[in-house]
Amino acid sequence: MRILSLTAISVTALALAAPTAFAQTPAPYHAPRTSFGQPDLQGTYTTATITPLTRDPKLGTRNVLTKQEADALEQATRDQIARADALYEQGQRAIPLLRDGQRAMALAAALYREILRQIERDGFGRRKGRAVVPAWRTQEL
């Protein structure tokens, strides 16, 4: 009987003490900082979207672009790709002039141009996520 009473008292004491023993106030969140004290913004960013990283002040408090604004951004992306293609074409002609690394430079240029083609196939940023060249396609290059 005495053992039963001690067990009951122990269980009761443990049940009353457990919530306070396990209840801990979480530490307040502190955003990571660089060694210079600035916010640490390391991460993966993508440009495969028409959503810019910074908000244009002229948009005010609107949450979405109009169709005309989205079309203008798409056209700007088309123009950037056209300029990049022209530069890649110019660079391709210079690759044979390199003393070393011709194959590596040609492959890098082909891969980056393929990323541009993938952006075109994906609708110029009207998709979620990054423009990724499938593994089977990189092997073909």
Helical residues, percent? 40-55%
Tell me the number of helical segments per DSSP (H or I, 4 or more residues long). Answer: 4
Q: Over all CA atoms, what is the radius of gyration?
A: 29 Å
Major beta sheet summary: none
Strand coverage percent: under 5%
Regions with pLDDT < 50 over 5+ consecutive residues? none
- End-to-end span in angstroms? 83 Å
Q: What gross morphology would you assign? A: extended
The overall average pLDDT, rounded, is 77
Number of beta strands: 0
- What is the string of helix and strand elements? HHHH
* Class from secondary-structure proportions: mainly alpha
Structural notes for this entry:
The structure is a single chain. This protein is mainly α. 53% of the residues lie in helices and 0% in strands. The protein has four helices and no strands. It has helices at 2-22, 67-94, 102-121, 135-140. Helix 2 packs antiparallel against helix 3 (102-121). The longest helix has 28 residues, at 67-94. The radius of gyration is 29 Å and the shape is extended. The N and C termini lie far apart (83 Å).
